[in-house]
């Protein structure tokens, strides 16, 4: 058995993603962070290496993996750059609703191009007045003949403007609240679909975050996923599947910062010896590594549960995202501390890891929302006699 | 277009150690990689194949463990891999290696172009490429930095020199050795790796290649290694940081100070 009980294919994915991260991303990561744009060349390399195929079923042009494979690749990329990792993983987020709820026809239409990396996917839920509270959603999709007529704005959309295929959650029946939302696939280039404000972010700057604007955008009714009213369910099931991926991104960022901090601490001489020889630093490294290892195992466990097909994965999925992202924030803060003054400077990568870590506590549901999900579930389980 | 790329398995140089008693490289416990210059040869072969069709066959001479670098080449997209392996090949110098590889190429039959890296990072001789061409009696262009206008009849190559480059036209078949400026080698793909893992690798022995036994291995090697030693460790370097004008001044002062200029 290897360290994490990976299959041979999973080991291959890990090694290849690590090789690309080291050889192709590390030399340009500071530049990508500075430039604040979509890392097109790197994404092309990931596509040519089949890394977009690992979360798509074989019958639709993929290699047949799932959440676990996506987590492994995302973690490796994040060890070097959390921004590139999310540009990559967000295509998985956009593809999951189609994989989970699409008809055979819809899957045949959209998935092969996502698997080859020829097209990038994205997911659009958040609005100015609706994030964690889906009920406040204002984007509408009115049925009109054979089309839906979309109006409204989505904000903070990862890969916005860059992606070709967007799964959008919009209200088809506003009076029904969350039960009136539906999931519809919108393609770049459709009339009435445009892009608005591009965000200037604190971290994960090697990814584009942009506003989507729908003005009488006509989308064929055949692009509706499953049926009207399932939008909220589609979003929740998608997040159940994708949250371990955020956990994996967080674990990668944490591990990347540890790797850099340990290397620095072994070289930095103070009082005639490397600072890594001081107990104060050594114990920090021990705590950071132990917490990251715990987070990694929780993420792998959650991802494997997601892929196993068991039904109730909301809790474990939320736990993996919550724990790993809190660990990442703490670990990257301490990694910077080990660097001392140098860590605060852009010349070293410590501050970038810290900036990149912060978002993992916020997106795909804030950690406060994750605690709501987990707490509610635990109390329900307890009531129904399913105590641990 | 049938292309053969000759590659070499070399130790990962970051941790090379030499046995002081036998004067040979300690290979045990050292990771083996494709000679980095050979990855440019593979990439160039694949690019020509993608343009003109045909096949890229990758070949190496070595012990059975050398299969791993052949599989790596397959995972980049080479169609076939050949390992020349025989106890009698052991201890070959550049002459015997060139002979053995040339026999391997003859065994394949129709070959239009042979591509090698400019040199291996362990021996650094840059002799095997030209040696193969000599034994096959075909044109050889070393230090190729660019290939232009290639078709079934021939090609134009830029041969890089210290002061610039030569533009050379050559008929086919021919052999080129390439420098790293020629391209950017691709990453392997997952599908490529999966296929490479399962792929059959052809093994040829000295008998399969009808080798003259006196021309292979240690017996066929005119080179005698008298002594190998690790170069003495360099002194600590110093990097001057700042504006170019200031750093140049500092450097000049330092050189004067040390009596170098």
Explain this structure:
The complex is a heterodimer of chains A (388) and B (261). Chain A contains eleven helices and nine strands. With 388 residues, chain A is of the alpha+beta class. In chain A, strand 8 and strand 9 form a beta hairpin. In chain A, helix 1 runs parallel beside helix 4 and helix 7 runs parallel beside helix 9. The radius of gyration of chain A is 21 Å and the shape is globular. The mean pLDDT of chain A is 96. In chain B, the strands form three sheets. In chain B, strands 11-10-9-12-8-1-6-7-13 form a nine-stranded mixed beta sheet, sandwiched between helices. Chain B is α/β, with parallel strands linked by helices and 261 residues long. The model of chain B has no long low-confidence stretch (mean pLDDT 91). Chain B has one domain: HUPs (Rossmann fold, 3-Layer(aba) Sandwich), CATH 3.40.50. Chain B contains six helices and 13 strands.
SSE arrangement:
The complex is a heterodimer of chains A (388) and B (261).
Chain A: H1 8-25, H2 29-35, H3 40-48, H4 67-80, H5 82-101, H6 104-116, E1 121-124, E2 140-144, E3 147-158, E4 165-171, E5 181-187, E6 193-198, E7 209-220, H7 231-267, E8 269-270, E9 273-274, H8 279-308, H9 314-339, H10 350-358, H11 367-383
Parallel strand pairs in A: 1-4
Antiparallel strand pairs in A: 2-3, 3-7, 4-5, 6-7, 8-9
Helix pairs in contact in A: 1-4, 4-5, 4-7, 5-6, 5-7, 7-8, 7-9, 7-10, 8-9, 9-10, 9-11
Chain B: E1 2-6, E2 9-11, E3 18-19, E4 24-25, E5 32-34, H1 36-52, E6 55-61, H2 67-76, E7 80-84, H3 94-108, E8 113-117, H4 128-136, E9 140-148, E10 154-160, E11 165-171, E12 174-178, H5 190-198, E13 202-204, H6 244-257
Parallel strand pairs in B: 1-6, 1-8, 6-7, 7-13, 8-12, 9-12
Antiparallel strand pairs in B: 2-5, 3-4, 9-10, 10-11
